[in-house]
Amino acid sequence: MSALHLEVNGDRIEAQAPDHWTLLEVLRYRLGLTGSKQGCDKGDCGACTVLVDGKPVLACLTLAGAVQGRSITTIEGLLPAHRRAGGTGADPIQEAFDRCGALQCGFCQPGMMLSARALLNRCPQPTREQIREALSGNLCRCTGYTQIFEAVESCVAESLGAAPATRSWEAQLAERRGKQVGP
Ligand code: FES
Ligand code: FES
Questions:
Q1: Which fold has domain 2-74?
Q2: Which residue among 49, 75, 100, 103 is best mutated to probe the pocket of ligand 2, counting the most ligand atoms within 8 A of its Cβ?
Q3: Cβ neighbours of residue 83 under 8 Å, at least 6 residues apart?
Q4: pLDDT tens digits along 125-163
């Protein structure tokens, strides 16, 4: 058991944990930050993705002791970081996932959105191919990925001043059924 000194979502935190614990275990079972999901726990699914110094990292394969003194961002920290930077609402990538209906069960979403946020921070106008590559380590068993890629593209379009397309679930269902919704 050791004392860990971590910087998580802008807060300096001290936590006691066994030396062999991963970052994911410390986040979930010591700090109560359960947004980072424990899927495969062996580096396959990406559900545990967090940002370390702005880069996506698999928390299930990272020893907590190895990231002391580095800046860790989990999904819980995305909105507060956006607000601290002067934004309103949620982080634009969160808004875009919501707007585009890019989720079903939601299990993959924290990792998926953090990978997307890291991509947009280093490459503000990615191509579809770059989006695919950046999210290739994040598996989604529900959505088929199309709406996830569209959400990232919608976020880019919005950052360039385009009005975000509204694609509510109601509108999407009606579209599939060949009906019109609304007046
Ligand atoms: S839980 Fe870490 S990659 Fe699956
Ligand atoms: S929405 Fe269910 S795994 Fe992606």
A1: Ubiquitin-like (UB roll) (3.10.20)
A2: 103
A3: none
A4: 999 999 999 999 999 999 889 999 999 999 999 999 887
Per the structure block, which two tokens stand in for 3? 């004392």
Question: What's the whole-model pTM score?
Answer: 0.89
Q: Are 48 and 36 in contact (CB under 8 A)?
A: yes
Which strands sit side by side in the sheet containing 11-17, from one edge to the other? 11-17, 2-8, 71-73, 49-52, 55-58
| Ligand approaching nearest to the C-alpha of 40 | 1
**Which DSSP letter does residue 31 get?**
S
The topology under which CATH files domain 87-177 is DNA polymerase; domain 1 (1.10.150)
Q: Is 138 helix (H, G, I), strand (E, B) or coil?
A: coil
Q: Whose CA is nearest to atom 3 of ligand 2?
A: 140
Beta strands (DSSP E) in 24-152 are 49-52, 55-58, 71-73
pLDDT tens digits, one per residue of 61-100 = 999 999 999 999 999 999 999 999 999 999 999 999 998 8
